[in-house]
Amino acid sequence: MNYNWLSILFRFVLLVALQILVFKRIPFEYGILSYSHIFIYPLWVMLLPFKTPKSVLLIAGFFMGMTIDIFYQSYGVHAAALVFSAYIRDFIFRIIEPDIGYDLDEPFNIKRLGVIWYLSYSALFLLLHLFVYFSVEVFSFVYFYEIMVSTITSLLFSLIIVFIFVLIFNPKS
Amino acid sequence: MRNLLLLIAKYGSTIVFILLEVICFYIIISFNQSQGEIWKHSTNLLSGNINERVQNTSDYFALEAINDSLLTENAKLLESIINYRVFSKENEFQDFESLDSNLIEYKFVPARITNKTFNKRNNYITLNKGLQDSVKIGMGVISSNGIVGIVKNVSNHYSLVMSILHSQSKISAAIKNNDFHGTLVWDEMDPKKIKLISLPKHASVNVGDTIVTSGYSTVFPYGIEIGKVHDYAVETNEDSFEVEVDLFNDIPAVTHAYIIQSIKLEEKNEIESEAEDEL
C-alpha cells in the first residue's frame, strides 16, 4: 500500500470543486468554440493507481461521472463517458507503454515516465472521453461534424489545464 | 456452473462495464429531455414500422369479414334506394318522407357466390345463403351492376340460382322512361349479350336506350338497370321488335350478389293462382 487513500479522496474533492466552481463558469462564446468545455475531472480516473482492479476503476468512473452530472444537470452523460474511459484505460497503457515499462507498485511518477509519455496518455484519454461525451450529449451521429469540432477544441483547452494541474500538484508527492 | 464462474472471473470487468453503461443510458434517457425525446422518436420509428407491418398482415386476414360487413351495408342501402323508387312510382303525388317500415316491399340478403358457370347453354350460380336466411325459390338475385338470375333451388345454407344466361330464363324488362316492356331471353352463347323479345312494334326504341326491370313480376323491383340497346329489328313474322342488349353486368366476374325478398310475393301469387283456377 504505497499510495495514499487520503490523497486520492482529497484529489476527488479538489477536482470536483475546480470543475464546478471554476471551469464550469468559463464561458465560450466565440463561434466555433461555443460548445467547448474544459474538463478536468477525468484526471481523477486517469491518476488512479496502476493496480486498481478494473471493476473498481469502472465504479469509480461511474461515481465521479454522476457527481459531475448532478452539478451539470445532465444526468448520466458524464458518467457514461467516464465509465467508457475507465474501461479503455488499460488499452491506452498498452499502446503507449514506454521502453522502461511501468513500475506497477509505484503511483504515477512523471519524472520516471517522462513528460512526453504523460502528455500522450492525457491526450489519448481525454480525446476518447470527450468524443464519447459529446456523442452521448448530442445522442445522434447525424451531428458528427459538430461532435468532432467540439471534441478537438475541448481537448486542446482541457489538455493545457490538466497539464498545469499535474505540474502544480505532482501526484507522486 | 464452474465454467460460468470462470467466465465471470475472466470477463467480470466487461460485465461490470456493460452493466454500468446500461445504467448510465437508462438515466440519460429518463432524466434528460432532449436525449429522451431522440430515444423515443427513434424507437417509435422502429416500432411504428413493425406495427404497420403487423397491421397490414392482420388487415389482410380481416378482409373477408370486412367484405361481408360492406356487403351487408350495401344491401341495406340498395334496399332503401329501391324501396324509395318503387314507392315513388306507385305514389307519384305523395312525398317521400312518409315511407316507413310498413311500406318496405323488398328486403335484401347479401350473399357470396361460391360457384358458377357461364360458358354452357344453361348456366347456374351457387350462393352461400339458404333457408336459414329465409331465401325461397323464385326470389330474384342482383349484383351491384344489374340482375343475375332467379333462385331455383334452396338448401339450408346454399341456394342455386338460374342465371340470366340460361335458355329457360324469361325475365320481364322494359325500356327506361317509356315503360314498353318485353321479355329477356338468352339465345346466344355470349355472356355479355342478351335479347329483349316481344316488345310491341309501336314502341319507340333507340340505340343506346337503357333497359330496366319492369317490376311486373315482383321478382325484381322496378328500375334495376340491365343493359343498353345495341341493335333492334322486327321479328320475323311477328308484330314485335327483337332488341339486342349489351349487359351492364359482367356475370363471369361477379363475386357478390343480393337476393331480393319480396314481402308481397306470396300475396301476389295467391291472387294470381285464384284467377287461373277460375278460368
Give an overview of the whole structure.
The complex is a heterodimer of chains A (173) and B (279). Chain A contains seven helices and no strands. With 173 residues, chain A is mostly helical. Chain A has one domain. Chain A is globular. Chain A starts with a helix and ends in a 5-residue tail after the last helix. The mean pLDDT of chain A is 83. Chain B has 279 residues and is α+β, with helices and mostly antiparallel strands. Among the domains of chain B are: 99-166 and 255-278, Thrombin, subunit H (Beta Barrel), CATH 2.40.10; 171-252, Thrombin, subunit H (Beta Barrel), CATH 2.40.10.350. Helix content of chain B is 37%, strand content 29%. In chain B, a hairpin with a 7-residue loop joins strand 1 (106-116) and strand 2. In chain B, helix 1 (2-31) packs across helix 2. The mean pLDDT of chain B is 83. The A-B interface holds A 53-55, 57-59, 61-62, 65, 74-77, 79-80, 83-84, 87, 136-137, 139-140 and B 12-14, 16-17, 20-21, 23-28, 31-32, 34-35, 38-39.
